[in-house]
Specification:
Chain lengths: ~280, ~270
């Protein structure tokens, strides 16, 4: 059977100096070493599975999510989504893929209904049908009827994140990329979102790639799990198979990577935007 | 045909969403509109004021009309340019840039939708400004050729879109400086296009720039249409340069945008956090 996603020798580097890099090149100054965010990644995701990718801050999870989601062009290697190349055939891939990121990205002053109606329009869904489904999905996620028509910025982060998941589902994706969908949520909202992911897995014919650094979440939701560190996949297996006798998944992660999953990346803020 | 219909529907999505956002920020809209109206009035009062300052009679009514056309047309063009140039920054500011760029639509659909919004929104503003200014001055608009004026605005906006789209793509290349450059372009257009004076008063080297500014032709044509009621047929000569500018800048703008987008996708410039 054709895999849902096949990633072959994927490499992605970033210029650390941003625009400065171009100037350095032009002036013949030595370039700083590029950041290797993805270092020859090979992954095959099977149709219908929830494939987890766990890694600490800066390990390359989001970069991988973006390349698969057509939001970053790879330097080398290839990514195929249901046989379509994410570079050459981006628009086809976009039609049946969606991504939810850590930050719920909405027009903040607009309501969930308005934001999702917009999505429905750009994805070409018939207005009436979309309207019905928006209410259906949002209500199932426990969003009150009233809140559906109120500006998003009056909602909690947890609720906003649920709306983000709902938006992704509205487009009926066969590939759903969830980049830390529960990070920063309170335990209750976290559980709601996780339950919903489980429901999606069971009721929709969707393949899910889940990036997380929450080991419990990974263990509970994923059929298979890859550990990513410094842009490399260290190991890939069923969650239970990654653990040794008496070990928690957290312990297994430390054994494999040599550090805990929650580490603060020192240059994270210093490296910021640039340009 | 089906595909075209879909893309049109998708463009409309941007028009609808942006108008909804404008409505939600209505407080700011009122404030900006108030500012624009006051600005237009202040400029128009230069004419009667000029009579007093110069201490001699001249046709202040014609000057008022000249200035009103300038200030209203500029309010329109400036607003079109502003909101076209803002299309990428707006998505980035709201945080929707990645979800918008990930949608299965052509990039021209996004550009067309955002531009259509810009034109409609700016036109509505300009009409309000014109109406209020007309209440303050007994403007003699009897001779005006409104059909011609409308045609001038329509074609004139096209001439400006290309430059606006190029400016819109700057934030894809430079995260912050992009918007700064937009302001510089706007200021330059204001200086060389003859908004408040005939361009002949400029030094030669500056006057030369007026030739490549689409706003120059829009303003000239508009004054012909509104001040002198010149017929549509006689307005045609103004349209030539506008269409030429459009034919060059519009495809160029779309191409530059596409190039900038690929640059952003290659270098991680859409968004980096999250
Ligand atoms: N757009 C970008 N420009 C420059 N460097 C980037 C960009 N995106 C990511 N990086 C760098 O690439 C590396 C991997 O980042 P990435 O965001 O993929 O990590 P992550 O695993 O998602 O981390 P987190 O858990 O913090 O979200 C980091 O060193 C990061 O600073
Ligand atoms: Mg990340």
């Amino acid at each position: 059977m054709q895999p849902a996603v096949s990633i072959d020798h994927l490499v992605k580097r970033f210029d650390p100096a941003g625009v400065g890099g171009a100037w350095r090149r032009a002036l013949g100054r030595p370039l700083k070493d590029p950041i290797v965010a993805l270092d020859a990644i090979n992954v095959t995701v099977r149709r219908g599975e929830v494939y987890g990718i766990v890694g600490s801050n800066g390990s390359g999870k989001s970069t991988l999510a973006r390349v698969v989601a057509t939001l970053l062009l790879p330097d080398s290697g290839s990514v195929q989504v249901f046989g379509h190349d994410v570079v050459k055939d981006a628009r086809t891939v976009r039609r049946f893929m969606n991504r939810v990121s850590v930050e719920a990205s909405f027009f903040k002053k607009l309501s969930p209904l308005e934001n999702l109606s917009f999505t429905a329009r750009i994805y070409g869904l018939p207005a009436r049908e979309a309207h019905q489904r928006i209410f259906e999905i949002l209500k199932r996620l426990g969003i009150e009827e009233k809140a559906i028509r109120r500006p998003m910025d009056q909602m909690s982060r947890g609720q906003q994140q649920k709306v983000a998941v709902a938006r992704a589902l509205l487009t009926s994706p066969v590939l759903l990329i969830l980049d830390e969908p529960t990070t920063g949520l309170d335990p209750r909202s976290k559980r709601d979102v996780q339950d919903f992911i489980r429901e999606v897995r069971d009721t929709h014919d969707a393949t899910v790639i889940l990036m997380t650094h929450d080991m419990d979440e990974a263990e509970q939701l994923c059929d298979r799990l890859a550990v990513i560190d410094k842009g490399r996949i260290l190991i890939e297996d069923k969650p239970a198979a990654l653990r040794r006798e008496g070990e928690s998944l957290e312990d297994a992660f430390i054994r494999l990577t040599g550090h805990a999953v929650e580490v603060d990346e020192p240059d994270k803020t210093a490296a910021g935007g640039g340009g | 045909m089906v595909a075209l219909g879909r893309e049109l529907g998708a463009s409309y999505a941007f028009v609808e969403r942006n108008f909804r956002a404008v409505r939600r920020y209505w407080g700011w809209e009122v404030v900006f509109l108030f500012y624009s109206i006051v600005n237009a009035l202040t400029v128009a009062y230069i004419a009667p004021g000029g009579v007093l300052v110069a201490g001699q009679q001249f046709d202040a009514d014609r000057l008022i009309l000249f200035l009103v056309v300038g200030t209203v047309v500029w309010a329109y063009l400036n607003s079109v340019f502003d909101s076209v140039a803002f299309m990428v920054s707006w998505e980035r500011w709201e945080g929707t840039i990645e979800s918008t760029f990930m949608a299965p639509i052509r990039r021209v659909t996004f550009i067309a939708g955002s531009s259509a919004f810009a034109v409609l929104y700016s036109f509505a503003r300009a009409v309000v400004i014109l109406v209020v200014v007309a209440l303050f001055f007994s403007l003699d608009l009897g001779a005006a050729n409104w059909v011609g004026a409308f045609a001038v605005l329509a074609i004139g906006s096209l001439g400006l879109l290309g430059i606006g789209i190029m400016s819109a793509s700057l934030p894809l290349l430079f995260l912050e400086r992009g918007s700064q450059m937009t302001v510089v372009v706007q200021a330059a257009l204001l200086l060389v296009s003859g908004v408040y004076y005939p361009v002949e008063v400029l030094p030669d080297w500056l006057e030369w720039f007026s030739v490549i500014s689409p706003a120059t032709y829009v303003l000239n044509a508009m004054r012909d249409a509104v001040l002198d009621g010149v017929s549509l047929l006689d307005l045609l000569p103004h349209f030539g340069p506008l269409m030429l500018i459009t034919a060059v800048t519009l495809p160029l703008g779309v191409w530059v945008f596409g190039w900038a987008e690929r640059y952003a996708l290659r270098h991680g410039r859409l968004k980096r956090s999250g």
